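Example record

The entry below shows one chain as it appears in the dataset: sequence first, then structure tokens.
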Amino acid sequence: MTETNDPQGRSSRSRAQDETAPNVRGLQHRNTSPAWLARAAGIGLSVVSVGFVLLLPFVIGRYGELSLITRPLPVQITFVLPYVIAALTVATTIGTVLAWWNQYWSLRARLHQTILALLGLGFSWQLATLGFLAL
């Protein structure tokens, strides 16, 4: 493939890099913006919480009650999830406070994020009360 020069002396390859550079910079900025991170934490909190609720009865049913003492690998993975939930709850709560402080999204989106944070706080408290989180 031969490179052609434009009137400004740039090759076709450098023109292509210039055209894609704003898209890459925009993607990198979006992935590190507080608004995007707050939503990602809320989505992660929802997914991991539902995963824990579905996985715990499955693992106990599959390996029996003795698995709570012997702790095979699937049980160990299941019992790590409450700590992930607690970390995502903290991140979602911080993201919610920042969303209200900086008015990131619409009112409806901020209310949704607030509800996710409150549900995460309640679920984390319940996990701590039931002994899944050793605080």
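Notes for this example: The mean pLDDT is 84. Helices lie at 12-32, 34-63, 67-70, 73-102, 107-129.
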